[in-house]
Amino acid sequence: MSFTAIARGWKAKVVAAMVAVATIFGMMQFAAPEEAQANAHRGWLRPGCEWDTYNYWVQYCRVYSHAMGKHITVHVRPGIRPNSPGLYLLDGLRARDDWSEYVWTANAPRLFEHDNLTLAIPVGGEASFYTDWNRPAVNTKGEIRNYKWETFLTQELPVYLGQHFQTRRDNNAVAGLSMGGSAAMSLAYNHRDQFKQVSVFSGYFQVSNPVMSTAIAGAQIDQGYEPTAMWGPPGVPTPGHVRNDPSMNLHKMRGLPMFIASANGYPSHWSSPEALLGAPSELPQIGMGIALEGLSRASTVAFEGEARAFGLNPTMHYSPDGIHAWSLWEQDLAKARPHIKKALGV
């Protein structure tokens, strides 16, 4: 082979290598900035936090609440960049005190991994409806809990998130399931300066209705709490019941984007595999899930009728089957995601 041919071959290889390198660097030029921004903003621990073992940049933070006189645990996943909107996720009546199933069961941090949103997921709030109670909550465990969740979620936590995670106070969404769904709606329409979108999964809306308020009180008693300490006696439309009743506050919802979902209480392999595959010992819990979702469906349909008659236009999603369970709510959260992002400009 002549020297010219050899040189030509090496030249071709060099050119090919240069093209490959240029291509790689070109891809890095477009891909690296966002990843670098995410690492820069998400990759360091904030005060009072430790890394959550879930990963996905989730931090397990202890935020002091002066209103409640204690530290509140909050899972926080920072946005990609500073000055990001926030998404608050509220649990149900049986909320755990150690971690939130939004993280470990519904996989919210993974769902919103590439979205410039700060996820704020408070831990606890069992039977609280995430509201400010009239009196301290006393339960059958002998605990006294000074529930002031509305104050924490609308005054104290936003300050902490703004100071340490650079989260905006005026461009947030709130979502909740079951008990947390009722609370999310109330927080959204009572704090329009903070929340620009609300999502409700398997919620209950007519909380001042004597039948519904009595059912809520019964659920709180079942969890070991004295219900009159929240808004007063059930069956009576007290100011607290009325203020937190979405069906009584439709005038506060004009222009508020809403995503509302519920199922019908029918179990299936698609939406509720645990209901069909569970052990016989789980049948009472499965039966409760069927009943609770059926009640939510009735409440949701009634609220949609009330809202549309008032001129509101909520986005509704009625699952063809599903019971009151996390397998359903994980899917509902995924369906709500594009609506949340659109409302917040993400």
Automatic annotation (TrEMBL):
- State the UniProt keywords alphabetically: Signal
InterPro entries the UniProt entry points to = AB_hydrolase_fold, Esterase-like, Mycobacterial_A85_antigen
Q: Entry's Pfam families?
A: Esterase
Signal peptide interval: 1-31
- Any GO molecular function: acyltransferase activity, transferring groups other than amino-acyl groups
> In which domain of life is the source organism classified?
Bacteria
Is the keyword Signal in the record? yes
Protein's name according to its UniProt entry: Esterase family protein
